[in-house]
Design goal:
With 299 residues, the chain is α/β, with parallel strands linked by helices. The protein has eight helices and 17 strands. The protein has a seven-stranded mixed beta sheet, sandwiched between helices. Helix 5 packs parallel to helix 7.
Length: 299
């Protein structure tokens, strides 16, 4: 008798990762670079790793991958200290070894039929958007042209710079950009309610809607949306996508215990062709169609 195995079985690796660099930013944010060659070779935008924060702390923490370099065998993680586990992780220094499981999860699937990509990231939801932008940049011959909007209510975990890339439909005063994306030639803008210079004073979804509203029907038909961030932001993103009739993929943030589908503690209700179903964010997601997670309200 044949036995069906989960699609993720055999694809999740356990690797002793070496800390290569660990940089602190304001707001208790950190960028951690790990040497994990096997995971780096398989990582895709939207996936995450399950990381041991301290040898005396048995529970791992799920953290999104911001960048993966197969050549150097490194992955980069942005995280914000929330709780004792990540506080312990913040003590890691170059040369330390951390047990790392990954890559985990069903990531973003860029749609070449709609290559004008609007990427929205909020808070610690920013890392997958950087990874996805880099992925699309590598697929530029397929026509992908990402525009990235990032939001934060605390100082950004990078030094914003004035953009030299003109984005029609965006107010001239909104000029702050992500420096790495700017270096790559990828258009980006920043949003915040904290009054940071050059940022849109409001939510990422407001700026996204303003840009979408500036497009003609033919251009809008070539747009797709991708988002990661807090649930209220994703729900608002889904409403914007519905308003402009644009397909949208969202990466959910949920508490996780095992992160490999065993405990089902991260299950959420998702609409499927056969009706509502409970799906595990860790391995069935974290990326889902926005309409499946945030369905349109009944008329």
């Amino acid at each position: 008798m044949s036995v069906a195995h989960p699609a993720h079985r055999g694809s999740i690796l356990v690797e002793d990762a070496e800390v290569v660099a660990h940089q602190a930013w304001p707001g208790q944010q950190h960028v951690l670079t790990l040497r994990a060659p096997r995971i780096a070779a398989r990582a895709t935008a939207g996936c995450f790793v399950h990381l041991t924060c301290d040898e005396h702390l048995p529970m791992r923490r799920p953290l999104s991958v911001q960048r993966a370099d197969a050549k150097s065998g490194t992955i980069e993680i942005l995280y914000k200290i929330v709780g004792a586990g990540l506080a312990r992780l913040a003590r890691a220094v170059p040369g330390d070894q951390l047990s790392c499981m990954g890559p985990i999860g069903h990531g973003f699937e860029p749609d070449p039929r709609r290559p004008l990509a609007l990427l929205l990231g909020g808070g610690v939801g920013m890392p997958p958007m950087v990874f996805l932008a880099e992925t699309m940049l590598a697929r530029a011959l397929e026509g992908f042209r990402p525009f990235v909007v990032l939001g934060s209510e605390i100082p950004f975990p990078f030094r914003p710079k004035p953009s030299t890339i003109v984005v029609p439909g965006i107010p001239d005063a909104v000029i702050a950009a992500h420096p790495l994306l700017e270096e790559w030639g990828v258009a980006s803008r920043l949003a915040s309610m904290a009054g940071f210079s050059g940022c849109h004073e409001g939510y990422v979804t407001e700026l996204a809607a303003e840009w979408l509203a500036s497009l003609d029907a033919a251009t809008l038909a070539r747009v797709s949306m991708y988002a990661c961030g807090p649930t209220p932001m994703l729900a608002a993103t889904a409403r914007v996508a519905l308003r402009f009739e644009v397909p949208c993929q969202v990466s959910l943030e949920e508490f996780m215990a095992c992160a490999v589908g065993g405990c089902a503690g991260c299950a959420v209700e998702v609409a499927t062709p056969s009706g509502p179903a409970m799906k595990r964010v860790c391995v069935d997601g974290p990326v889902f169609d926005s309409r499946a997670v945030f369905p349109a309200p009944a008329p």
